[in-house]
Amino acid sequence: MGVNEELAPSFTQKPTLRQEDDGNRLVFECQLVANPLPAITWFRGETKLVENDRTTMKMTELTPSKYLVVLELDDVIETDAGSYKVSAHNKLGEVAASINLNFSPTDEPKEK
Question: Which parts of the sequence belong to the Ig-like domain (predicted)?
Fold first, then answer.
């Protein structure tokens, strides 16, 4: 793969999900290759996500044409549950992948 070779976006790692800060922060991560630089869009359901005080989106170039794409949600609440989709596109094409965020019922303290 040449440095200047043009590439349609393609995932090298599908989205994964991890919790940080005792579950108060969720981090969605995926990796992709693309050249030129792709435009990244995140959705929850059909709603396009925008950055705000709870939502952070990052893209880091790991190697030429390979990127780490991250969505962070802070102060997670139950209404954050749902299907998340990340879309990447450049002039050569578009690719998308989804991951579901489900909350299990709150564990009640068990009496002994």
Answer: 9-102
Domains of the chain, residue spans: 7-101
- Would you say 12 and 66 are in contact if contact means Cβ atoms under 8 Å apart? yes
Q: Give the Cα separation of 17 and 29 in Å (integer).
A: 7
Tell me the pLDDT tens digit for each residue of 17-51. Answer: 999 999 899 999 999 999 999 999 999 999 999 99
Closest to 101 measured CA to CA, from 86, 83, 85: 83
For the whole model, what pTM was predicted? 0.88
DSSP string, 8-22: EEEEEEEEEEEEEGG
Q: Which CATH number fits domain 7-101: 2.60.40.10, 2.60.120.260, 3.40.50.300, 3.30.930.10?
A: 2.60.40.10
Closest CA to 80 of 25, 41, 35: 25
